[in-house]
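TODO from last week: model DNA primase.
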Amino acid sequence: MSLPPGFLDELRSRASLSQVVGRKVTWDQRKSNQGKGDMWAPCPFHQEKSASFHVDDRKGFYYCFGCHAKGDAISFVRETENVGFMEAVEILAGEAGMTMPARDPKAAEKADKRNDLAEVMELAVRWFRLQLQTGAAAEARAYLDRRGLDEKSRDHWEIGFAPDAWQGLWDALKGKGVSDQMILDAGLAKPSSKGGKPYDTFRGRIMFPIRDAQGRAIAFGGRAMDPNDNAKYLNSPETALFDKGRSLYNVREARVAAGKGQPLLVAEGYMDVIALHRAGFEAAVAPLGTAITENQLQMLWRIDPEPIITLDGDSAGQRAALRLIDLALPLLEAGRSLRFAMMPEGQDPDDLLKASGPGAFQKLIDEAVPMVRLLWQRETEGRVFDSPERKAALDKALREKIMQIKDPSIRSHYGQEIKDLRWQLFRRPQPAPRGGARPAFRPGGKWQQAPMAPLPSTKASVLVGGDQAVTDHLREAVILAAITGCPEIAAEFESGLEGMPCRDRNHAVMRDLILRHAHEGAGVLREKISAALGPDALENLTSQRHVAITPCIRNPGDIEMATMTVAEELAKLAAARGLSEEIAEAEEDMAGAADEGLTWRLSEAVRSADQARRSGQEDKAEYEVSDNGARISRDERSALDALLQNITYEKPKGRN
């Protein structure tokens, strides 16, 4: 329907925004100045105690400095009453004494029909309620008694009963003069496929009226009394009044309770909502037999910026929660999110309230986790990340999910939260795979069980201590100094830093602080390091001669040079560790004769050392460099030679 020019301007000028808003809020008399139309109150769109919601009555606009909600009288009515634009205009026009323009005939016809259908639905509500008092409903009343719904509760929720008869409601409505087509259009009966008389949609069921935000009865939900019925719960079919994906059970009362500060709770079914309401949690709603839709999610956010999803503690409830994450991620906005309170296994909210009382449920609500934690749990629970490939797969999956978030600020915060959770996970030892330690492959031999701990001979090796430890320490110092000078490159080397063992305690502390705080900038990172290790820690690090002469330290802020330095030093650390581990494993195998695989491994190590010696690379006086970039001290070279000289070679049996 189109409105004539100037109609909305006149409506806005006539409607007092402070009066419209005043029906939903309590003004802060200390901050408000009614004479100037400058009014303040706690925001009706989010929970708060301070008065951060401002209404400028003269300009006709409102703004919340907390959740940033803003608009005029029409948008306020739309948001608080959960109505469409034209319905909001009609409400305000009626209050302002303005006559709505003539409507399009077709639109008027549709609106009139919806009103007629709503009247038919009210007749059905009254008829079902009367049937609950009959003898045929004795079993239904007994069931409601067992569920704790006394007569007062039944009246509050307008619970009724549909007798197990084919035309019980049909005949009653026909007796009231309702036409066949209206009964069918209301979804209260279905046409016979055999050409006979239409039959009732609901038979042998406890009936729960479903009302919209304006309080109109728009549909029913029916709970079957027959345990063998194919559908335990049955909702009305979609009609001109009822769109299942745009409706919520108890939305009107929940909106009022949420406006008074109660948290908005989302349960799975009617009985959960009723149980929560009886326990004092009045801002409770439920979707109507399906997973939450985008429209329902937007409805929830109009009531409360952070609804709490209280799904059942069974596998179906958990799957529903995880599906909701995928729906919500692209729709997130600043101040709009979800929290999740998962019920104990095998329980729904009604079960928990009966077993443990409102206090236990409140505790669960207080401990509801933000959506990012549930996303992390979904991608990591029950999985082992004991290889680079598995870690990379996790990173890819999480990155794809986070990229669905359209708001760049929220996307950034999600990324940082995931990074913190990742850091916590990978700093802990990963559990061994089922069946014990993973078998190790020996080249030239067969699969063998990896040793559970290093042998004494390995611990005593010069390759584990001595010069190699000093070399590692020097490289670590250069890496840490380079990244503290250019913390923006830390994310690129996150995996390498996580795998850097750091024998020196100060290096380990500095590494962990970089992983956690580099994204906050150089200033914050330096403060964290100073607080943990003392004000001179960074100066002591960068003043060491081998660090101070590093090009990226001499040229602070050169990101490209710092990146190259860190990449090179991490690669050399990894290569050196690989060489040391190869020799250490060889030493462990020296408790007897060696096979050709061991000989091959040691020969390759010697060949690398010889190539490094001939290449004449860095630090010739003290070190040789292998072809893979690992620095080999002369002591290590001597150890390699000694190992080879002492090998007694035996060809494995069965080989020619």
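Done. The domain at 103-242 is CATH 3.90.980.10 (DNA primase DNAg catalytic core, N-terminal domain).
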